[in-house]
Amino acid sequence: MSRADHMDVAAYALGVLDAQDAERFEEHLATCWACAAELETMVPVVGLLSGIDGEAMAALEQTHTDPALLDRTLVAVRRDRRRTRVRQLLATAAAVVVFGGLSGVAAGMLGGEPAPTPQAGPTQTAPTAAPSGEPGNPNDPGVGGEKPIEGDQHNATDAGTGVQTTMWLARKEYGTQVSVQLSRLPGPRVCRLVVVRKNATSEVISTWSVPAGGYGTNQNQLPLELTASTSAPVRDIDKLQVQSVDANGVASPLVTVDDI
């Protein structure tokens, strides 16, 4: 085979030979170990030059007779190779980032320490009711709000009915403000809050109905919370009593605060 036939290795590798020349080269390749070895070494080069089309290769053939064209072709090839290397570097960097992220997730799933996740701080909300059926204590935020409830606190539990209450009595110009929290109060029923004065007179200052689930019970863990007022000053109050009223209007005590 002629020297020109040997030089067809690069053109064949890049796929720029026409069908007749490619067939002729393949027949030669079957009997020429030198061309076969050279073709094998050109496989990586083909990947780098894959962006150069047939017209560029044809122009390359003309560089044998046109030095200026050779210089322009070499510049174009170098530029294309630089772009290819940059793309390869970017692809490698992206793969490293993705692999690193997946490795962190896998480590967490296999029992490693997970990466700390930023968490929002607790947000305080104004409770509408206490979370349990127990009466409040002096450190509780209060009924229906974040601020401490105004007034002196009094706790009571009725041994017979089991109803529990916490009441706050605040002195006002008009008399006394009474804030009430009730739990372990079963339903359904109608209740009322009665102020008993030291002169033995009484006054109903609030009434309400209790649903079937009650308040502060197993069915409804939220206690009942309400606020009422009386014209009687704190010094004149003997006791405060929550009463249950039946269908006939007969009242029976459920829980009494008498340590005023």
UniProtKB/TrEMBL annotation:
Region named Disordered: 110-159
Membrane-spanning ranges: 89-110
Low complexity composition bias: residue spans: 118-131
Domain Putative zinc-finger: 10-35
Transcription regulation in keyword set: yes
Pfam families linked to this entry: zf-HC2
Database matches in InterPro entries: Anti_sigma_zinc_sf, Znf_put
Keyword entries, A-Z: Membrane, Transcription, Transcription regulation, Transmembrane, Transmembrane helix
Name of the molecule in the record: Putative zinc-finger domain-containing protein
Species the sequence originates in: Micromonospora echinospora
Top-level taxonomy: Bacteria, Bacillati, Actinomycetota, Actinomycetes, Micromonosporales
